[in-house]
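Case study 2.
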Amino acid sequence: MTAMTSSARPADPAGSAARPPLNRRLAEFGTTIFAEMSALALRTGSINLGQGFPDTDGPEEIREAAVRALRDGRGNQYPPGPGVPELRAAVTAHQLRRYGLTFDPDTEVLVTAGATEAIAAALLGLLEPGDEVVALEPYYDSYAACIAMAGGRRVPVTLRPHEGRFQLDLDELRAAVTDRTRLLLINTPHNPTGTVLTRTELTAIAELAVERDLLVVTDEVYEHLVFDDAEHLPLATFPGMRDRTVTIGSAGKTFSFTGWKVGWVTAAPALVSAVRSAKQYLTYVASGPFQYAVAEALALPDDYFDAFRADMRAKRELLAGGLEQAGFTVFRPAGTYFITTDIRSLGESDGFAFCRSLPERSGVVAIPNAVFYDHREQGAPFVRFAFCKRQGVLEEAAKRLRKAFAH
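Prediction:
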């Protein structure tokens, strides 16, 4: 064996000193703002109204259903790839009972590891490199990353505040569609703005999709959290949309078990097949025992959903009132469990700087909406607070914010 010379060095494990390890499609994203702000909350001992997870569990009978499944050995091994039959049947029964939509549980339902995987699998399965995706801006942060991983190009259409709500400019939406557009990515009720798209807006979206022969992926995870006079209308119920829409639902938001990661897709067989082709190489399967519990949850009586919505509406009013008293401009959400505020009324304009200083100033953590925008300047003055917390926590947060900012 000869000694290694300078010309026989080991290969660079990164492949090339000039090329960084991270896939360039993901280079722009970095660590999510949720991780940064949650770490800041822990470090400062602040109340975390940034990340959208409840601080109490959902219905006790549903938690016990999961325990029962574990003890009975249901789901402890790999569940079926499409999801357990009980949950697929429960999803179709829910869609029929709520919206009059009929789906075949064997060919038109796919269970996923939460809605986040459903979004990823839908975009990976339906897009090819170069396809354009029109998405409503601001958007949930995984949308941009998943479009990038699929090789697509995101085309944002900005929701702008008008008369107390963030509204969609339908002319701008129509102008965003080109010959390269493959699909529309729609979220209603909308995170982070709390907007619930109206029948007029949804009708225009459906007509555009039919006219231009577009697919639509619609994220409806907050379907049961609509307030006041707002109404959730699934896009798949509109003329021409049943066979071109991939509808995404989730148990986490509706039943306050976000850690269970149980989501689902409903769509025509060809679309479900495309999504499943990508999904099987992501988690393959997940959340076995929890799928049985969620099947029972979807069959809960209307009283549960009504009480859940009323509780969240009361919490919305509690936090919104505290924010207004502290001097924020508040956009009361028609849906979701997030409140978007405008900090310009406080003499501030940089949401990132504001949120990074907020824990020290008030002992509360929030999220800067600009992270959800391609056009960062459009979102710069907006900050999001989550109200899916215990009443006492929200009261204390409101008190701290009033103390820090009210004059």
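The chain has a mean pLDDT of 94.
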